[in-house]
Amino acid sequence: MLFIITGPSGCGKSTLVHKVLENVKNVRFSVSHTTRNKRDSEEEGKDYYFVSKSEFEQMIKDERLIEWTVFHGNHYGTSKREVEKKGSTGDLLLDIDVHGAEQVKSKLKKAVFIFILPPSFDELKRRLEARGQESAESIKERLDVARKDIRAYPHFDYIIINDDLEKAVLCLESIIRSMRCSLESKKKEIVPILQSFTED
Predict the structure, then answer these.
(1) How far apart are CA 102 and CA 51, in angstroms?
(2) How many domains are contained in the chain?
(3) Do 8 and 118 touch, CB atoms closer than 8 A?
(4) Which pLDDT band, with edges at 50, 70 and 90, does 131 fall under?
(5) Rounded to whole angstroms, what are the CA distances from 149 to 6, 60, 186?
(6) pLDDT above 90 for 118
(7) CATH code for the domain of 99
(8) How far apart are CA 34 and CA 82, in angstroms?
(9) Residue 190 is assigned to a structural domain of this protein
(10) What pLDDT is recorded for position 200?
(11) pLDDT higher than threshold 80 for residue 136
């Protein structure tokens, strides 16, 4: 099952995803491609696949991306190959922005779409400022985008309000575990069981 995790920048979606990856078995993380420079703390293939702008543009032309966007002059996107390869072995989590999630939603109907909400605008602003990684101008830009992103919440299957990290993690884990029991997820597994009831 494919789980799309999204929400405004600073809502805590990446933290939630990493917690779930630690706590729930057979869940994998979809690594995005980006043209931005690699940070010292980041690892190729784990945090991102770092590619040149020309490589990324070629991926767009070849229709190898299931979604992509540009932010602060850098390109970010998810390759179809990444989703197909990792998604075939179990549940897969995509941590992407709202625009990317909307692109995926227009292409894949069976995915589960989850929107992460911060408890308030002021708290979102506080979290972005607390990172200490960006300029005031960059934070303002993220907040302006957040005001627009927040309007997309009605188009998602589940809403998680990230006002308490532990509670929000449990909510995300519960969604994943419940979807594992859905009819769609169990179709292949129940075939031999059903057949056993028709035998003499």
Answers:
(1) 24
(2) 1
(3) yes
(4) confident
(5) 10, 24, 34
(6) yes
(7) 3.40.50.300
(8) 14
(9) no
(10) 62
(11) yes
* Residue 36 in this model has a pLDDT that exceeds 80: yes
Query: Which residues does residue 113 pair with via DSSP β-bridges, in sequence order?
Result: 4
* 198 found inside a domain: no
Model-level pTM? Answer: 0.89
Distance CA 116, CA 118 (A): 7
Q: In a 10 Å sphere around its CB, with 0-12 CB exposed, 13-18 middle and 19+ buried, how is residue 162 labelled?
A: buried
134-140 mean pLDDT: 87
Q: How far is residue 167 from each of residues 65, 86, 93, 155, 198, measured CA to CA in Å?
A: 33, 28, 19, 23, 44
50 by Cβ neighbours in 10 Å (0-12 / 13-18 / 19+) ranks as middle
Residue 121 token pair: 């605008």
Pairing of the two strands 32-34 and 74-79? antiparallel
Distance CA 134, CA 116 (A): 22
**Residue at 70 is within a domain:** yes
Residue 185: per-residue pLDDT: 87
Contact 122, 41 (CB under 8 A): no
Q: Containing domain of residue 45, as a range?
A: 2-183
Count the Cβ atoms, other than its own, within 10 Å of residue 76: 22
Answer whether residue 195 is part of any domain: no
